[in-house]
Amino acid sequence: MGRVPLVDLQAAHAEVAEEVELGFKRVISTTGFIGGEEVAAFEREYAAFAGVPHCVGVANGTDALELALRAVGVGPGGEVILPANTFIATAEAVARTGARPVLVDMDPDSYLIDVEAALAAVTPATRAVLPVHLYGQLAPVERLVEGLAGSGVAVVEDAAQCQGATRYGRGAGSWGIAATSFYPGKNLGAYGDAGAVVSTDQTLATTVRTLANHGGLTKYAHDLVGFNSRLDALQAVVLRAKLAKLAAGNQARRAAAQRYDDLLAGLDVVRPATLPGNLHVWHLYVVRVPDRDRVVAELNAAGIGAGIHYPTPVHLTRAFEHLGYRRGAFPHAEAAADRILSLPVYPQITGQAQESVIETLRSLL
Questions:
Q1: Residue 1's pLDDT is what?
Q2: Can the keyword Transferase be found in this entry's annotation (predicted)?
Q3: Which of 45, 68, 91, 126 places its Cα 20 to 30 Å from the Cα of 154?
Q4: CA within 13 Å, CB half, 217
């Protein structure tokens, strides 16, 4: 069988190559590389797509998280609650504000944050709860918002993997503020690093924009000690071209996920679960298998781009061992990290390729 990549960025580029080339020529001809109409247009278009009034483009997803946290008042001496099973950037963003990451376990079926554990972890030092919308579906944000009502604790969503996903008809950021990443492999991917913060709150959005632009909204006006984290115009060109195809791409991912569900029936594989009320966009199709490391290695050797998202929970990384958590602290996250693998999924994947993936997986199991 031929090679099946985990993500096919070449196929994604082919769909927008002509439009991107024309857009690059527009930007180069005007030399408007930072900000400008391409960025402003993308911000308007992505806000409309996300169903929120405000979008601020920034340099990358990690910056987006940090800026969103800072906008809601997170800083030194505070605590932010987040799941142990996430990419390191979620915890990094908290640490970069000077706050302390407080970890909780995940729901073993959905891999999303354990809401009850998060609410139980709130202390007088808690400034925010940071649910992560893993793999393409939203965590139960409404339960967190309801549970935190009147406490003064903000909910900041890590929406890097869920562009276009909804929960009971609402998208990320519609409860207040969310940060997303446009890393090339995302459902909406740039040709380099890029990110954004979306919000329903104009004050929060203005604070993010101010912080991201050296602390000011106009040249040489610096109201805050800020950062240099701006979406550049060339990336905005790419994102605009891809955004026009995102809804169709997400639908193609849903069809591919259903095909995997059907093909995996009867195998010793735990298939992913979608929470009631969620419209999933299948950034990743994650299963649990026995003897995971051998299976991944042999899939890769057979030309199948299986991956692991993520092999080490935050508390077991060297970077965050100072938090004092030990193995066994978050048993669901740890058990999943030892058994999960991600199968190839992208809008252009064919049924034949998926059948080949599962035929090989079946032989290995």
A1: 47
A2: yes
A3: 45
A4: 6
